[in-house]
Amino acid sequence: MPEGIAQHHDGWFELALRAGRMVAWEQDLVTDHVSRSDSSVDLIGIGSGPLSGILERIHPDDRHLRAGLGRSGRQEEEVVFRFMTAEGGQIWLATRVRRVSPERLIGISFDVTEAKTAQDRIREMALHDDLTGLPNRTCCAEHLERAIGGAHPDGVALMALDFDYFKEINDSFGHEAGDFFLKTIAGRLRALSGKGVTAARLSGDEFLVIAPGLDRQEAMAFARKLARRVGQPVEYRSQTLWAGVSIGLSRYPDDAETADGLVKAADIALYRAKNSGRSRTVAFKPEMGHVVEERQRLLSELRGALRYGQVQPFYQPKIDLRTGRITGFEALARWFHPERGILTPVSFQAAFEDPHLSLRITTYLFRRVLVDLVNLRRIGLDPGTISFNLSNAAFGHPKIVRRIVAALETFDIPAESFEIEVTENVLLNRNEIVARRKINHLRRNGIRISLDDFGTGNASLSHLQTFRVDTIKIDKSFVDDICDDAKGRAIVSGIVTIAGALGLTVVAEGVETIGQKECLQAVGCDQAQGYLFSRPMSYDRVVDLLRKETADQGR
Known about the structure:
By secondary structure, this protein is an alpha/beta fold. It contains 22 helices and 22 strands.
C-alpha cells in the first residue's frame, strides 16, 4: 500500500471505505501501476496491480473514460463508468482524481449504482406514459429527431392516430373502461413495433408511430395495417368497446425536413381524415396545409364574431299542410360578417366540427333563441315549437343535455316549446348506448326530438326503433323530384305511412313549388318548410309574421 494511504490506514478509515463502498487508490503515471486500498477486493474484486487489470473489466464503451484520467493536464477530474463484476453483473463506479505531481495521481472510486439506477428510473418515468408505458411526447420527439438524423434512404414515415369516439367510451362505461381501452391499444401498438418502429402516446387518445425505411407506398400499406389492428373492438367486462381510428400520414423528407414539420404535416392529414368522415387513413398533401390555415383563420374570426354579437338566430316557419297555419320555426345560425355580409352555416361548417367552438356556438345561439322566445311571450305571441339543431360535436359533449335543460329552467321556457334536431349521422356515428341515453334524457324533460335529413343516413327505418324520436324531417333531395319521380314519391309515401303507424310527425324540407306542396299533401305529409312559404328571417320579421297571422285568424 502506498505511503500516503498507509499513513491513514487504521481501523476507522478502512471501515469507512467499506461502509461507503469506496476504494482509495494511487496511480503511477509512468508505469500505470495502481495501488489500491484493501476495500477494493470487496468492491471490485481486484487488488493492486496494472491499470490494464481494471480496464478490461470496464464496459468497452466507457473504457476510454478511465484510461484517459490524468492525461488531460487538468488538476482534478471526475468520471462515471460501467464496471463488470466477477460474477458477471454490472455496477456503476464514480471516480474522482487529483494530479499531485507529473507522475502521480491519487483518487477515490465509489459505487453509485443505486443513485444511477434511481436517476435512470426517474428519466424513464419522465420519458414514458404512466398509463400505457409507451414513450411520451418528449421521448417521441427524441426518437423522431434521431430517426431523421440517421434517415434511411427510403425516408421516415410518421403516423398520427386519434380515436374518433373515445370520449363516448368514457361517458358510457366510465374512465376505468377508457383506461383499459387505451392500455389495450398500447399493447397492440407495441406488438407492431420493432425494426426501428416506435409507438408513443402523446395525450388522451392521441398516439404517434414512427416507421423509418418505408417509401410512400409501403408507408400507406403499413398505416392501413395499423388501422386494421388497432381499430378492432376491445372486450371489457362482457362489453364491447369501439371507438374507430383515424390516421394522418406524413413522410420525411417529402413532406417536411424537420421533426416539428413532420408532426405538423401528420396532424394536418389527420384533420383531413377526421373531416372526411372519420375512421380513415389519409396521407399528407401540400395543398392540405392551405385548407388548415384557412380553417384556423375562419375559426379565429368566428370566435371574435361571438364576442361582438355578430352571430344571430334566424327563423324559418314550419307550415301545417292541412290548415296552412304556422306550427313552429326552425332556428338557424347566421353570421353577420363585416366584409362578406350574412353567412349561412355552409360558410362556416368547420366551426361545428370543432368540439370547443361548436359548443360555444350552440350555447350562445340557444340562449339568444331563449331570449327571443321570452320576448315573444311577453308581447303575447306564440311561435309554436322552436326546432334547434345540434351538431355532431355539440351532441357529443358530455354536458350538453344538462346545459339545455338548465337553460330552459333559467329562462322559464316550457320544455314542450322546444324540439332538438339531430341528423342520423350524429346518432349513428357514435356509441349507441350514449346516444340513446341523451335522447331519452331530453325526452324525459319534455323536449321533443326531431331526426333531420331523414333518408340520407345509413339505416334510417331500422333505427327508429333504437332511438325514440317525435318528428322525422324528409330530406330535400326526396322532395325535389316527388312530382316527377314515381320511385321517389313511393319512398316519401312509405316514410309517411310508417311514421304515422309509429305516431311520429313528418316534416318535408326544402319545399319550393306549389306542385311539391300538393304532392306532399296527397301522400299525407303533416308539415313542410321551404322557400315556397318563407325564407329564414330575423326576430323582427317573426314578430311581424306572427302578428299578421294572429290578425288573419281573428277575422
